[in-house]
Write a structure and sequence with these properties.
alpha+beta; Rossmann fold; 8-stranded mixed β-sheet; 5-stranded antiparallel β-sheet; 10 helices; about 15% helix; about 35% strand
């Protein structure tokens, strides 16, 4: 099937709701900056709620007139309606657990079986935790004796976490219930567990106020949360947050601190000695430092310290400071992204040109063998420190998850589970990797996926995606929703911009703070490359990105509004002057810097902040649809609210400037499948309508 010209006429300029204003002007080191839509930061105010309702009415009215919107939704439902099975993992009760979704279940169900692939029973079904599928199961943590299982949930996509406890054998729910936890699991020790939480927030400000004084608590089973004792806190650093973990033998407690750098601090405590004190392994948060296991009194540590490409070191648990580390597996020419024990073997996963490669090492740091993979793709391993039995999944842009059973001791590998999509043949598509020059000559990698037989005639719609920040690597990954675009003759292009982790910490740093312009230039160069090489033309080029990627889309649209036909900034960081004042926004300062840092940093942020650089001189902008959600407490919806209000009030031509505000949803994680399908239906409908294209009927 292919995309054809639509019969619909081009839309005239829309009339938008008037947003509440108050004339606020901020002063940054003597520079006045207008912030007229400051009232929209109060997401629970009556005038904000009225504006949200009015905006959604305009957006839904526009989208409802797209004649093939319903057809797109039905096709996306078909594409998503296939059984999805996750990696099995052996838990402490000796049984095997795995997630499975029959097709269109809002949340995947957790099953367990006595043997791998054996008859399974439902262990926990999160679909029964709410009527609309908006409660997500975010983690499962079993006590070391397997008797109890703690599980974490999120409501409506919020980062706020609740912890419940159940009897593993019977499934009976205990009375233990933890609230206002965040960025935490449950680290079991004895008859209780450690977790991280904040104090109960102010009513009405649960999803917007800055989070302060993250503490580590210990909860003893059978007692109320009010009796939980504080195990670790840092009263001198209210904006730091702390995650907690424990070694398998329950001998060593570890607290990782974050929020002030690119990595984490690390403190450990000997739990075998009641009088032991906290030992500082690393005070700074300049490097990633994570303990992956403990053997024979030695800690095995995955780190970027003195290793921008990452390495694995060992340290005596009684003298774990950096000065006492010994390299076990040093830096390679690819980025070490994960290391885990499988019995006495180490599974090491590397990123090379944004694609995964994996190897088996012994405990002496000697490589024993490669794990053979079929091509560009992403790996995920399920290992057990007690034996060599391993499972791993491989996926690519056109290959859904394939699960392999692997013996790390012998290297034996066999197919465990293959995902089949009715009516879809991955052999009909191809992915290639290209390298293109950015503005300063740096070569940037990009994956391009399309249907075989596609011609480079400049007439192909392109969906260009990017992120470029926070050391995040964009690997090849499968999306059933993306198949709609590909089967209709569209091209999916994924650019591996600076700011990510594709080539280690230097690549990351090259896209941070006063070098953030590199990220935008890299993305603009990707679009220019797709046009220059004959893949497409600007009237068929759509760009999309979420969160930091939403910032990316907003910034490059301001820089080059002539280059794109459609822009979709999703849950974006759009106000760079005030982002650090909401929820955990302060934690992004190591990538962005803040407007309070210095006059130079304030000027730099102001120079690209999406909300503050929208043109108002008649310059035609692409069609834009902003997306956000009412329970997004990661990137608060005020970012998108103020950006959309500014955009709609500015003279940027007649193309639509809409905002789609989801309800009972958050930043994206845990979103029920029906909401995901609804969102992609609207995104694809908006893109195609503004490209004057429409999908043909599906030719199965």
């Amino acid at each position: 099937m292919a995309l054809t010209m639509a019969s619909c006429s081009k839309q005239t300029k829309l009339t938008y709701p008037e947003a509440p204003t108050d004339g606020t002007v901020d002063i940054y080191f003597g520079t006045e900056v207008e912030d007229p839509y400051r009232p929209l930061e109060n997401d629970t105010a009556a005038e904000t709620l009225a504006w949200v309702e009015a905006e959604n009415a305009v957006t839904q009215e526009y989208l409802s007139q797209i004649p093939y919107r319903g057809k797109i939704r039905e096709r996306l439902k078909e594409l998503n309606n296939y059984p999805k099975e996750g990696l099995p993992f052996k838990n402490n009760d000796g049984k095997y657990y795995f997630y499975k979704n029959d097709g269109l279940q809002n949340q995947s169900v957790l099953y367990r079986s006595a043997t791998p692939g054996g008859e399974a029973e439902v262990f926990l079904d999160p679909n029964k935790l709410s009527d609309d599928g908006t409660v997500a199961l975010t983690g499962v943590y079993q006590s070391h004796d397997g008797k109890y299982t703690a599980y974490t949930i999120s409501r409506s996509g919020s980062d706020w976490t609740e912890i419940y406890v159940m009897d593993t054998a019977t499934g009976e729910l205990l009375k233990d219930h933890i609230e206002w936890a965040k960025f935490t699991g449950a680290a079991w020790h004895g008859d209780g567990f450690y977790y991280s939480a904040y104090a109960k927030p102010t009513a009405g400000k649960e999803y917007s106020n800055a989070n302060e004084y993250h503490k580590v608590y210990y909860h003893k089973l059978g007692t109320p949360q009010s009796a939980d004792r504080v195990v670790y806190e840092n009263r001198n650093e209210p904006l730091h947050f702390h995650s907690v973990d424990i070694t398998d033998d329950e001998s060593t407690l570890m607290v990782m601190g974050g929020g002030a750098g690119n990595g984490n601090s690390l403190y450990i405590k000997d739990l075998t000695n009641p009088n032991s004190k906290w030992v500082t392994v690393e005070e700074s948060q300049d490097y990633d430092i994570n303990v992956i296991g403990k053997r024979d009194g030695k800690l095995y540590i995955y780190t970027s310290a003195d290793a921008p490409m990452y390495k694995l070191v060992t340290a005596d648990a009684n003298a774990p400071q950096r000065a006492n580390w010994t390299d076990l597996v040093g830096e390679k020419d690819a980025v070490l992204v994960n290391a885990s024990f499988a019995g006495d073997k180490l599974i090491m996963t590397y990123d090379k040109d944004a694609s995964h490669h994996a190897y088996v090492f012994n405990r002496n740091g000697v490589k024993e063998r490669d794990i053979t993979l079929p091509g560009f793709g992403t790996l995920s391993f399920s290992t057990n420190s007690k034996d060599a039995e391993t499972f791993y999944s491989f996926s690519s842009f056109t290959t859904p998850s394939t699960i392999m059973a692997y013996d790390a001791e012998t290297g034996d590998s066999k197919l465990f589970h293959a995902t089949e999509l009715p009516g879809f043949n991955p052999d009909d598509y191809v992915t290639e990797q290209v390298f293109y020059p950015s503005a300063d000559g740096t070569e940037i990698p990009m994956f391009i996926t399309y249907k075989k037989g596609l011609e480079r005639n400049g007439k192909n719609p392109v969906y260009l995606y990017g992120y470029g920040g926070f050391n995040v690597t964009l690997n090849p990954g499968f999306s059933a929703n993306r198949l709609f675009w590909l089967e209709n003759g569209g091209i999916y292009a994924q650019a591996n911009l600076r700011g990510g982790g594709e080539y280690g910490e230097e690549w990351h740093e090259a896209g941070t703070k006063t070098q953030k312009i590199n990220v935008f230039n890299d993305f603009i160069a990707a679009a220019e490359y797709m046009i220059k090489e004959g893949w497409t033309k600007k009237d068929l080029l759509a760009i999309e990105g979420g969160s930091n990627g939403g910032l990316l889309v907003g910034a490059v649209t301001n820089m080059r509004p002539d280059l794109f036909k459609v822009a979709i900034p999703r849950v974006g960081v759009m106000d760079m002057m005030r982002y650090h004042l909401f929820t955990i926004g302060w934690n992004w300062a190591h990538d962005y810097g803040t407007s309070a840092d210095s006059p130079e940093m304030a000027r730099y942020l102001l120079s690209y902040s999406p909300t503050h650089n929208i043109k108002n001189d008649g310059t035609p902008y692409p069609a834009i649809m902003v997306t956000t959600a009412d329970h997004d407490d990661r990137v608060v919806p005020a970012h998108s609210f103020k950006y959309a209000a500014t955009l709609q009030a500015s003279d940027t031509g007649d193309a639509p400037k809409l905002i789609r505000i989801d309800s009972n949803a958050g930043h994206g994680a845990g979103k029920p499948i029906d909401k995901v399908i609804d969102e992609y239906t609207d995104i694809y409908s908006f893109i195609l309508y503004n490209m004057d294209r429409e999908p043909k009927d599906n030719d199965k």
